[in-house]
Amino acid sequence: MAKSFVSDLKRKMVSAEQAASVVKSGNWLDYGFGLGQPDLFDQALAARIKTLEGVKVRGCLALRPRAAVEADPEARHLHYFSWYFSSLERKMHDRGLCHHIPMNFGEAPDYYRRFIEVDVAILKTAPLDSHGFFNFGGAVTYEKALTERARIVIVETDESMPYVYGVENGVHIDEVDYVIKGGRQTLPELANPPAGEIEQKIAGLIAQEIENGACLQVGIGAMPKITGAHKTLDRFQMAYCFAAGSSQMYEFLDRNAACFAGPVNYTNLPHRIMQNERAVAICNAAQIDLTGQACAESAGLRQISGTGGQLQFVRGAYASCGGKAFLCMSSTYERDSRRESRIVAHLAESNIVTTPRTDVMYVVTEYGISNLKGKSVPERARALVNLAHPDFRDDLERTARECGLLSRALF
What we know:
CATH superfamily of the largest domain: Glutaconate Coenzyme A-transferase
Largest sheet: 8 strands, parallel
Number of domains: 2
Distance between the termini: 73 Å
Structural class: alpha/beta
Oligomer: single chain
Shape: globular
CATH class of the largest domain: Alpha Beta
Mean pLDDT: 94
Number of helices: 14
CATH architecture of the largest domain: 3-Layer(aba) Sandwich
Strand content: 15-25%
Helix content: 25-40%
Low-confidence stretches: 220-225
């Protein structure tokens, strides 16, 4: 390590308590994304949060409980906001301790560079490298834009953080105000539950539609065996903007030249996705109505997750040469010990439309697959009724006819 960087590092090194002392009442803090959220700083802030007023913390996909939030259970001193809810943030939201910020994920760096005020950014990173950079590891996403915007930048280093290759994947020590040496912590893991019978049926239907040489969007927690040989962009590499999964996956990403980490505007914007031929987007939906509009993020006004990258990947995949976009879901779910249909005549009251009906391409359940592109409303209604669980088809068809979605002259 260059001597000048060692000198800078020693000069900027502080304890978590000293770092937390820079926070003032009314400040906007930013905890960054997923693996990049700080823990030691968070605990130190929790210890003094009741001495502050009106502190606001922005984060995304928290993978551990946030100590500062839990230290203020009535939200008298601190308010937490999230771009995309993890299961922890969903529970915080249900307790009135977390608020959602709507966004298309690929636009996040632009939001920071154009609109968002940040007083203090606190990010967990890999330790300082020989070139003077703190690598963002599995949380590249929008963190470079965040550090450009923040008035004060604090990094909390963690020797367990994977060191990743790519672009906009770190912040230089010259741009950092304070450094908390975090030693080696255990990174949080996000379980990827095994596929059940329904998921396997859905996967089998999608697999039949995927052509040789297709470029796949792979969701959270996966570590696929993919070569990238047929891609136009980042050929022979797996491109991603964040990682949340198993310790095995983190080890796989560490200094692996076959993996390319870029900011989310590099990976998720439709005009970039479409440059790869035969791009395939595979996304989930929670509810779809008989005209084809899909909700994937809420249960009424209760926020479940967020728009994330779904809409942009659906649009980018469709726009690529030979591309395809799939919205997948089980035909039913359990609520209050009773079975409900995910395909409905109209979305439940206040459910958020994540993907408009004009963008939806393939819809897949365990009962089949249908391409809605080019279909009229009656054709869509008929196709979606056929994808519903058999126990709900008669009621769906009856309601569709009463609402004028299905005409006996046509069906």
